[in-house]
Design a protein that fits this description.
- The complex is a heterodimer.
- Chain A is α+β, with helices and mostly antiparallel strands.
- Chain A is built from five helices and nine strands, in the order H-H-H-E-H-H-E-E-E-E-E-E-E-E.
- In chain A, a hairpin with a 5-residue loop joins strand 3 and strand 4.
- Chain A is globular, with a radius of gyration of 22 Å.
- By secondary structure, chain B is an all-alpha fold.
- In chain B, 76% of the residues lie in helices and 1% in strands.
- The longest helix of chain B is centred in the C-terminal third of the chain and has 25 residues.
- Chain B is globular.
- Classes of the chains: A alpha+beta, B mainly alpha.
- Chains A and B meet through helix 1, helix 3, strand 1, helix 4 and strand 8 of A and helix 1, helix 2, helix 3, helix 4 and strand 1 of B.
- Strand 1 of chain A pairs antiparallel with strand 1 of chain B, so a sheet runs across the interface.
């Protein structure tokens, strides 16, 4: 019975009768409260029927054309003289930014960039493969009841904990069994203080990104 | 039938924001847009508004791909929720519910539509868990009372609010709210009991 009220909200959210301010409150809780995200995942996994193909309606081609424009996938080519300038400016920027990066880059190789609403976090692996350094573009620290947990999502579908974190700016030793075997994705979830109790993620994932080695 | 694994891979590739992201997103659109337009059209009953919602929802999916939960087993459900919520919002703002053609489009046979609209026996390659979950859900839906089941299906399929359900079913608001609430609680109890036994 402990979850009865939360379950009622999850159910009404999925069926679509949770509206207006109540829905926005629920969506905020979904981002911030691990238990809510976990419970909704249970509902989505077990109570969402899948549509048959009979419901499908092919969209008119204009929808995609508009979408390309909205998202800036298609840019009109500018005249050659402006392009020349653009290339020159870009070249200067590359040099300047390159110099900046060379100065700021932590030791090691950039293996992943984790993107999310909260922040963007870069992950550098030391040359010897033993230390992972996370650097966030904004200072993000877990609340008193929370920890962040970094997960390795392997290409085979495995989910393994790499570290429990108090902040997104940190460095830690890569567990021995994962050294030289970091492949797939990295993801950070919000967990109860001390990390996910069952060794599997329970809270909302706030950051994720593919590993490029 | 959309393959959740393929959709998930495309969503993660979209979220990666690398040179392959735009192409992954285009493929994601090709595969899932017809289903999602169908979902929007059931809520809005008007093609031009449904296409508007499809455009907005995919723009949102492009921007929100980074917040997609890589652990979620059903990425199609994630995208469907974005489309359905957007369609519901557009419907409230356009007051589509007052357009006469809308009422004609609401399913008069929600009981029958359960088996026409939804897939209850997923293909064998989708895994035993998925097959079992679908079967439990279908069995448990049939154990609800007819008005409870009808309210849930109408709300889910057409995005009807409590007020619209009450108007459509010609029952007091409180009665309809109780049907939805009891229907969901009944489903939860029934499905979880089966999970516990398996």
């Amino acid at each position: 019975m402990r979850h009865a009220a939360l379950d009622a909200l999850c159910g009404e959210y999925l069926v679509g009768t949770l509206r207006g301010a109540a829905r926005r409150r629920f969506e905020r809780a979904l981002r911030e409260e691990p238990l809510v995200a976990q419970r909704l995942r249970h509902w989505q996994g077990n109570f969402t029927p899948r549509y048959t193909p009979m419901i499908e309606v092919p969209p008119s081609p204009q929808v995609w054309t508009r979408l390309e424009k909205t998202l800036g996938f298609r840019r009109a080519r500018s005249p050659w003289f402006r392009r020349g300038w653009a290339i020159a400016v870009a070249a200067i920027l590359v040099v300047v930014v390159g110099l900046q990066l060379a100065r700021q880059e932590p030791d090691g190789v950039l293996i992943a960039e984790l993107a999310g609403k909260t922040a963007t976090v870069s992950a550098h692996l030391s040359r010897d493969g033993r230390t992972l350094v996370l650097h966030s573009d904004r200072p993000v620290i877990a609340g008193p009841q929370q920890s962040y947990e970094l997960w390795l999502l392997t290409p085979e579908g495995g989910v393994m904990s790499l570290a429990v974190l108090g902040s997104l700016d940190t460095r830690f030793e890569v567990p021995e069994r994962h050294r030289g075997r970091l492949r797939g994705q990295l993801a950070v979830s919000v967990e109860p203080a001390g990390g996910a109790p069952g060794g599997k993620p329970t809270g909302p994932v706030i950051l994720a990104g593919p590993i490029r080695i | 039938m959309l393959d959740d694994r393929a959709i998930k891979a495309l969503l993660l590739r979209t979220a990666a924001r690398d040179e392959g992201s735009a192409e992954a997103f285009r493929r994601l659109y090709e595969l899932s847009a017809p289903l999602l337009l169908g979902v929007a059209q059931r809520v809005l009953a008007r093609r031009e508004l449904a296409e508007e919602v499809l455009h907005d929802a995919f723009a949102r999916i492009w921007h929100a791909a980074g917040t997609f939960d890589p652990l979620a087993a059903q990425p199609v459900a994630w995208m469907t929720a974005i489309v359905r919520n957007r369609a519901i919002d557009v419907r409230s703002s356009h007051d589509v519910s007052r357009v006469d053609s809308y009422h004609a489009a609401v399913d008069e046979d929600p009981e029958g539509s359960l088996d026409r609209l939804f897939e209850w026996s997923p293909a064998a390659d989708e895994g035993e868990d998925r097959r079992r979950a679908a079967q439990w859900l279908r069995d448990c839906l049939s154990k609800l009372t007819a008005p409870e089941r009808q309210s849930l299906v109408l709300a889910y399929e057409h995005g009807l609010s409590h007020g619209e359900l009450a108007a459509h079913l010609k029952k007091p608001l409180g009665t309809v709210k109780a049907w939805v609430r009891r229907g969901m609680a009944g489903l939860r109890g029934c499905v979880e009991a089966r999970m516990g036994q398996s």
